[in-house]
């Protein structure tokens, strides 16, 4: 398939710049993957499309407030750092702008709370930086860090928690697993009272999720790698749900990639952790999923390709065009899509 097969025309004004005041008031497009039929609802009505005995599997990774601004100790020049990956202790791979001001040996001060020392330059200009702080680096980042919002969001985020799911826990993502942003604690309780179970995986989302597909042939694209953990409790709940005739519904493409990667690599679901670079595009035989809750993704992205593999190419592109016509809100802070 060609990258251009996954293009759709999106007016810029439909790209959501801020989250809605109430998480679960987002609109929800429901797509029947068997018939292609589309219906419209709101996320707070999600129970209408869930059955007792179903299982929602969610990614509980928490976003690191990884965008920080430091001043060169020698010149005072301000430089932006984006922490990508912890190498060891307080040593991190970082993106730096402007890079020419962050040569090896350069020292930086971050609001008097943290110091940084550039140790080396790696592939694609990535800097290896050692940070020092009197407090835990995560506590320091909570004080001085900003959320690493996607490049298409131009508005300032007033409340950092709105780029976190209400069930987020282990910190480590460079971007939010956005399909889960629509859930409130009250809605989750209502879902459980309805007889629907919930389970969690952890996949730390990397900035590669925003990396565009540059190859014309989809199969030539090299997927980024992300770390995941699949706990035994989740494996047991999935197996029990399947045995009892319930549906396993993934919340988000990151959850999907975790479950399908393990099932593909191990031949079955087993508790494990590791790295996945699975790239899902049509045609793909899903081993675990019966349903998917996701947001609306960028044209020609690996994420819309994954959705097309699950829902069917024609169904997906028709649903996206319908969402544009109905003026849904798109991308990270946008509306939701449920495929069942």
How would you characterize this protein structure?
With 340 residues, the protein is α/β, with parallel strands linked by helices. It has two domains: 3-63 and 159-339, QueA-like (3-Layer(aba) Sandwich); 67-144, Beta Barrel (Thrombin, subunit H), CATH 2.40.10.240. 19% of the residues lie in helices and 27% in strands. The chain is built from six helices and 17 strands. The chain has helices spanning 137-144, 185-193, 232-243, 253-266, 302-311, 313-325, and strands at 27-31, 38-42, 55-59, 62-63, 67-72, 78-88, 91-97, 107-110, 114-121, 127-132, 171-173, 197-203, 226-230, 248-251, 272-276, 291-295, 336-339. The strands form three sheets. Strands 2-1-17-16-14-3-12-13-15 form a nine-stranded mixed β-sheet. Helix 5 (302-311) packs across helix 6 (313-325). 39% of the residues are buried. The mean pLDDT is 96.
Brief characterization of the structure:
It is built from 6 helices and 17 strands. With 340 residues, the chain is α/β, with parallel strands linked by helices.
How would you describe the shape?
A: globular
Give the strand order, joined by hyphens, for the main sheet: 2-1-17-16-14-3-12-13-15
User: Sheet bearing the most strands, described?
Assistant: 9 strands, mixed
End-to-end distance: 24 Å
Helix/strand layout:
Layout: E1 27-31, E2 38-42, E3 55-59, E4 62-63, E5 67-72, E6 78-88, E7 91-97, E8 107-110, E9 114-121, E10 127-132, H1 137-144, E11 171-173, H2 185-193, E12 197-203, E13 226-230, H3 232-243, E14 248-251, H4 253-266, E15 272-276, E16 291-295, H5 302-311, H6 313-325, E17 336-339
Parallel strand pairs: 1-17, 3-12, 3-14, 4-11, 14-16
Antiparallel strand pairs: 1-2, 5-6, 5-8, 6-7, 7-10, 8-9, 9-10, 12-13, 13-15, 16-17
